Amino acid sequence: HAEMALYRAKGMGRNNVQFYLDELQAGAEEKLRLEDGLRIAIVNREFELHFQPQVNGQGRMIGAEALLRWRHPEMGNIPPSIFIPVAEEAGIIHSIGSWVLDDAVAKLASWLNTDVPYAGHLSVNVSAWQFARVDFVEQVRKVLEKYQVSPERLMLEVTETALLYDFDQTVSKLRELRELGVQISLDDFGTGYSSLAYLKDLPLDELKIDKAFIDEMLLNQDHTLVESIMAIGGCMKLKVIAEGVESAMQRDALLNLGCTQFQGYLFSKPLPEIEFLKWVTLQQSELNDK
Ligand code: C2E
Ligand code: MG
Ligand code: MG
Ligand code: MG
Which keywords appear in this protein's UniProt record, sorted alphabetically (predicted)? Predict the structure, then answer.
């Protein structure tokens, strides 16, 4: 089954693994294969972080998000939406998450130590399981110390599910992280089930509006949800960023609603480090030319 699907996917070209992945959903055998692959992916150096810029209303860089990429030696590129859940289920998200945090902060430190005009923070996604670990805050503190990066430069993206699991623990962990100086963003905001009663007690810095609501703005001309999120962000004195912004129309509609921070293909796709640093340098010189 797996071999067959893989064979057919290869025939469709290197990047077109969608067909294979569709079939993959079904098979437990394939999941085991992914699990095995994930267990050795770190030592085999198959992981790589890509970086997607975040910009303000003037197009100026305000930060970036690190996004994990995995190239399996035979299966090719496998998207995180497929392998992260497998890693979580198999209980191997911890080592992967630690690798991500270490590599992201190492890269950030190296950019800040050179003349790359890097601006703002670097956001790193944190799995619910990773966040739930008792030593998570300690891990973050250690990695910042290891690379001598100032904590404000690091933003952690957590999801509602991650935060609601053990609410008291969550609140105290978030407090500790913010005492360190690290920023916290609530990723995919609006897609979870957290009530506003919970939300108001969470020490956060940013709400990240899920792409689904940004899509809604174009598809159905429906701004209601984004408008509500902007209001919530305003009341709670949080920054609000929109993810998955693909068109100028979306950006302008967001600007009209008071949202001034963006991430999406309109500005740049997630890029490998070298390309990303070119983007950073180029946008800086373009803005200076204006
Ligand atoms: P996310 O954190 O919500 O990341 C945003 C996703 O939207 C990324 O997909 C990004 O490539 C994609 N994206 C950004 N702008 C656009 C756009 O304009 N249009 C479209 N169509 N897509 C856009 P990606 O990289 O495939 O990651 C998917 C999810 O996998 C992430 O969602 C995150 O939940 C998870 N993930 C990625 N890297 C990591 C990681 O290092 N650790 C953990 N725990 N999860 C990760
Ligand atoms: Mg994210
Ligand atoms: Mg997101
Ligand atoms: Mg999302």
Answer: Membrane, Transmembrane, Transmembrane helix
Sole residue written with tokens 């809604």? 216
In our burial notation (b when 16+ CB lie closer than 10 A, e otherwise), range 100-115 reads bbebbbebbbebeeee
Number of residues written out for the chain: 290
Residues with CB under 6 A from ligand 1: 52, 67-68, 79-81, 84, 97, 100, 125, 127, 157, 187-188, 243-246, 263-265, 270
**Percent with pLDDT over 70 in the chain:** 91
pLDDT of residue 7: 45
The whole-model pTM stands at 0.91
Neighbouring residues of 220: CB distance < 8 A, sequence distance ≥ 6:
none
Rounded CA-CA distance 141/27 in Å is 40
CA–centroid distance, 289 to ligand 1, in Å, is: 32
**Helix, strand, coil content of the chain in percent (nearest 5):** 55, 20, 30
8 A C-beta contact, residue 17 and residue 75: yes
pLDDT in tens, 94-116: 999 999 999 999 999 999 999 89
Identify which of 91, 100, 118, 106 has the alpha carbon closest to the alpha carbon of residue 42. Answer: 100
Q: Cα(67) to centroid of ligand 1, in Å?
A: 6
Q: Which atom of ligand 1 is nearest to the CA of 80?
A: 30
Give the E-state strand segments of 220-272 in sequence order: 239-242, 261-262, 271-272
Among protein residues, the one with the nearest Cα to ligand 1's atom 19 is 244
Element (H, E) at 176: helix 167-180
